[in-house]
Amino acid sequence: MPHCEVLSPLLFIVMTIAFAFLTHVFGLLFWICLPLDCFACILTKACDLTTSCDYHLDFFSRPFNKDPLMESTRPKSSLQNTLPGADPADVSQLLSTIEYQKDLLNGFQHQLLTLQASNEHLTRYIQSLPAPRPDPVRFALPDKFDGSPDNCTGFLRQCSIYFSNQPETYRQDHTKCSFIMTLLTGKALEWATAVWDHDTHVQQSYNYFTQLIRDVFQYPAGGMDAATQLTQLRQGNRPASDYAIQFRTLAAQSGFNDVALKHLFRSSLSAKLQAELLCKDDSLDFSQFVTLAIKIDLLRTQPNLKFNIASYVPTTAQIPSQSSPMEPMHIGRTQLPADERRRRLLNQLCFYCGGSGHRCSNCPVKPAINPSSSYQVSHMFNTLQISLSLPIILSVANQDHHFSALIDSGAAANVIHQDLVKQLNIPTIKCAPPIAVTAVDNGPIGKGYITHQTLPIKLRVGLLHTEEITLYVISSPRNKVILGYPWLSTHDPQFSWKEKELVSWSPHCLAHCLELPTKLTVCTTHLAKNPFSLPTNIPKEYADLAEVFSKDKATKLPPHRPWDCAIDLLPNTSPPKSRIYPLSIPETKAMEEYIEEALSYGFIRPSTSPAASGFFFVDKKDGGLRPCIDYRALNAITVKNHHPLPLIPSSLEQLREARYFTKLDLRSAYNLIRIREGDEWKTAFLTSRGHYEYLVMPYGLANAPSVFQSFVNEVFKDLLYQYVIVYIDDILVYSCSMEEHISHVRTVLSRLLQNDLFVKAEKCEFHVTSTKFLGYNISHAGVKMDDTKVKAVFGLAQTQQCQGVATIPRLFKLLP
Fold this sequence. Notes:
By secondary structure, the chain is α+β, with helices and mostly antiparallel strands. The protein folds into six domains: 2-81 and 90-125, no CATH class; 149-219; 223-301, Non-ribosomal Peptide Synthetase Peptidyl Carrier Protein, Chain A; 304-332 and 369-529, Cathepsin D, subunit A, domain 1 (Beta Barrel); 333-368, no CATH class; 554-789, Roll (HIV Type 1 Reverse Transcriptase, Chain A, domain 1), CATH 3.10.10.10. The protein is built from 25 helices and 24 strands. The strands form six sheets. A seven-stranded mixed β-sheet has the order 8-7-2-3-10-4-9. It has a five-stranded mixed β-sheet with strand order 13-18-17-14-15. α5 (149-164) packs antiparallel against α9 (206-217).
């Protein structure tokens, strides 16, 4: 017992030191490998050791986790098999246990260092690996080849590019030859099938196979090589853009230099286009010259530069009766037909009155006129105001003024209206002496005399033709400027009466009137009426804005803008392919007309898209057919644009005090928005005539209303709810007074014109006190529902009974 009393404090001290050491070590290992329950177990055992003399040291020999590695490396301790009768005060067992735990910790530390080294080695290995290769670019398959000589070179070039960009897939010649074989059709396939089994080199040598294809199919069309074809090529009636493609294709194979190509291209163009190119810049190279020719040809064929002169009455056709308010005018002498002059000369009759016994110089009927003015100006005026006109520019005080000049070979002088002279403050001088002006019947025109003429002023026709000209001031003609026989004889312009355009100038103009600018801007000259005539239902207050009602302007391909219609697809989706919808005979005819028209406008183009939606028609209110595309499947996978549309009832609350209204309807509204570049293929549609895709926003797209509404909201952002309501393509302008209303409408029309938006005049209403707008009748008295919209409801028979309807409190009353 004394031994135990001495040993117990010593054992307690040793255990305390061991506990502190183990606690520190286990704390370090806690975040590395020990689970939380082991730490709790340690604390429990420590408390037991400090409060009891019965030490169960088997705790220290128990592993702290179930790691198989630890189980396999841990030595078997005798403490695990400690018998119940073992002496708890045996210090050697305790020290042995402590040593074991130290060895165990050293093992853990060694494993940890090993893992860290492995981790560092793995990191260095991963960093040393090459960067992952990007996904290979997917190339479209080459077009199939049917043996056409024109397509042989292009087909082989496509195959070569396809193979060079996929070297791993097409490494073997046999693979390349087999691939080419799958692309052959028609007579090319028949030939290849015949030689495939009989010539082993065809299957094993790519170069041999392609050379055979060239030998068999790559021969000049019509037996002529590219150079010979090029010398015989002519534009004909084709657009210059189409002709240039064929010319460039042959030029690339001809071996001619740029000088020869430029000469051949110019000489092969149509006569009209050659005339327009007479004033070209000689420094242009072949490519620039071709581009210039294409631009000029496009300008020449624009519909808004055309005019109708079918009803033009030439001055020699007939003499108007005396009752005509506008008569030919003469200055100083009359003009006689050749036969009449010959008759009077043989019979010695007066050339002026036709009488006998005197000469023309002594004719008593002839008014006294100074001999210095013995020349004539004659002009035929048409009461229908349909005349042959030429766009001109008068430069006065460094300001350009655009007018239409009447071209008349029967006028013996060039004249200008006196009102225009006053308006532009054109300087004039007096004619000394005044020049008498008479009609064919010797009656005076206007005041009867021309008293003033302008100082030389600059007149420009088109872009390059410039001259200094003096014009006589007169008050009678309705035309502002008349270019008569003196101008025509000096410049000798050549007109195409069939095409209704000025096609060339005389050598005099090339030497004296045509200026060659350092930077050439394309311009063509056409004979035209006013290109933007005001529709009959449009008030005269908007005559200067007639362009906004132009139908031709609305058929041009609009430019790309920030409001282009985007078609973003949901992830992991692709546009579906639909079928061709059956159409009736009238619908088929309407479809063909629509395709032709849309192609000519540039709204659609042929497509090779993998997507395709169905094409059909719906009836319009006016009985016509509206083309529609079945985009339901495309809309289902399209990311929606949630730009809101206006709430109609809330918008109409702004009309409380308005008394005057103008309703505008935009022409081809959706077609004024482009499809975002790169998304056109998603709009592809199928018809029995072919596969096409839109370049402009079509009807039927889910985002079309929101896109167009956001566009018009931006256009009218400062006018909305001030005096304008816009719902997609319907515009309502409202005002309290007529003066204010005219100003508001002018602002709206100007804003539309600035943004290339155009109005359908036949659907517009101006300056009305009541109108129908979006299903409502609007007037100064208020807003009410349009009766035609609820006509069907009013016509319903009275309800007799109601079955299967749930009773909802506060919303429905029970039937009696």
